[in-house]
Amino acid sequence: MPLSNICVIEQGRVNAGLPQLPISKRDISPFEFIPAWVAYAPVVLQSLIIGLARFDWALPLSANPAIKLSGMVGESKNDIFEAVGPITKQYILPFYTVKKTTGNSEDILSKLLPTLETQGLQYPLVAKPDLGCRGAGVKLIKNNKDLFNYIESFPTDSRFLLQAKSIYQAEAGVFYVRQPDEEKGKIISMTFKYAACVVGNGVDTLEVLIQRDSRAGKLAHLYLPRHKEKLNWVVPEGEEFQLAFAGSHSRGSIFKNGNAFITPQMEQKFDEVLKDFDGFHYGRLDIKFDDISQLMSGGDFDILEINGASSEAAHIWDSDASLTEIFSTLMYQYRLLYQIGYKQKKRGISPPSIKQLLSAWKEEKQLVQHYPSTD
Questions:
Q1: Which of 95, 108, 179, 257 could be cross-linked to 163 through a Cys-Cys bond (beta carbons 3.0 to 4.6 Å apart)?
Q2: Cα dist. 204→8, 13, 30, 227 in Å?
C-alpha cells in the first residue's frame, strides 16, 4: 500500500518514480517540527568539545574550500554551480542568474526575456533566490505574468536564479561525503521527497479535502494560504492536486527515509559525477530522477541544488524517526564535518573566521525576510 497522505504513484503523475513505502506509523511526528535549538543542542555541545580538543571551532568552515564558508551560511547557488567542473555541470539543470536592479519591473522583464531565449530557457521555470535555504522564495514560473510578479516582489540589488524544470517527478536529497585523502565517497543518507497532495472526489472543495486529510489537515496553515484562490474549487474525481511544489519539509513536502535504497552503483555514480568538483567533500545534492530502480542501478539524474556544510541528512524528518535518531544522526554528520575540516587544515587550508560567518548569517537572515512566498 502507498504511504498515507501521499498520492497514488502512477507514471506521469505526482510522485511518479518514487517507491511505494509502507504506511507510516503516524501522520506527523512530535519531533518533525521541533525548534532548531532543540534539535541542534547536542550538536553544539559536541562541537564545543571537538573544537576544544582541536583548538579550533571553525574547522567546519574549511571542509568545502570550493564553497564560501564551506556552505555553512550565505553561500551563493550561482557561485557553487560556476565552481563545478565540466562533468558535474552536465548534470545541473540549466539556469540563468538575474540581479534585480532598481527600475521598473516591466523594463527588467522586457530585457530579460530575449536573454532567456538565447540561453534556451523556456517555461516552466523554477525561480529561487541565490542566497537562502529551506525552500525560501522558491516559485514555479509558468508564464510572463508569473515572472513579472516574481521580479516585482523580489528585493532590489539581490540575485535570483531561473532554472529549467526537470522532466522527472521523483525527488530526493542525497547526502554525499568524501574524505580529502580518499578518492571514493560515501552516501550517508538518502531522503525521498514526496509532494503532499489530495485526490478529488468530484464533490468536496479543495479546502474540505485538505482539512479532512489526516496529515494535511494538521498542516493546513501551510497549505490553505498558498491556495486561497482555489479553496472553493471542487476537485474532479480522481484528480491529484499537489499542495506544495518546493521540496522542503518546512514548506510542506513529506520526507521519508530512503537509506535502504542506497546501492554501491549509486555511490559509484556520484563519485563519477562529483569527481571534478574540486573542493567539495561534504553536502547534500537535491536531485530529480526518473525511477528509483534506475537511480539504484547508477542511472542519470538532474541536480537541482548542491548544499554544503549546513546540509542535513534529511531522512531524520521522516515522521517515523525517533528523537534519538535525530540527535545521533546530526551528531554523526557533524563529527564527519569536523574530521574533514581538520584534514583540510593539515593540508594548509585555513578556516574563515567566525566573524565572517556571523556577517554572512546576518545578511542572509535579512534577505530571507523579503523573499516572495514559497510555492
A1: 95
A2: 19, 21, 29, 15
Beta-ladder partners of 256 = 192
pLDDT of residue 258: 97
Fold of 1-93+166-196+244-345: D-amino Acid Aminotransferase; Chain A, domain 1 (3.30.470)
| Closest to 166 in 3D by CA, of 18, 270, 301 | 301
Mapped onto helix, strand or coil, the DSSP state of residue 176 is strand
SS (H, E, C) 239-289: CEEECCCCCCHHHCCEEEECHHHCCHHHHHHHHHHHCCCCCCCEEEEEEEE
Selection from 259, 309, 257 nearest residue 283 by Cα: 309
Q: What is the pTM of this model?
A: 0.93
Portions of the chain given CATH number 3.30.470.20: 1-93+166-196+244-345
Q: Where are the beta strands (DSSP E) in the chain?
A: 95-99, 125-129, 139-141, 159-164, 170-177, 186-194, 197-199, 240-242, 254-257, 282-289, 302-307
AA identity, residue 145? K
Residue 117 forms beta bridges with which residues? none
Q: Where in the chain is the domain with CATH 3.30.1490.20?
A: 94-165
The SS3 assignment for 218 reads helix
How many residues in total does the chain contain?
375
Domain with residues 94-165, CATH architecture = 2-Layer Sandwich (3.30)
Confidence band of 42 (pLDDT split at 50, 70, 90): very high
Q: In which band, very low, low, confident or very high, does the pLDDT at 6 lie, cut at 50, 70 and 90?
A: low
* Contact of 279 with 64, CB cutoff 8 Å: yes
Q: Chain centroid to CA 358: how far?
A: 23
**11-15, 131-135, 193-197: least confident range:** 11-15
Q: Where does residue 70 fall: left (phi above 0), alpha (psi -120 to 50 degrees), or beta otherwise?
A: left
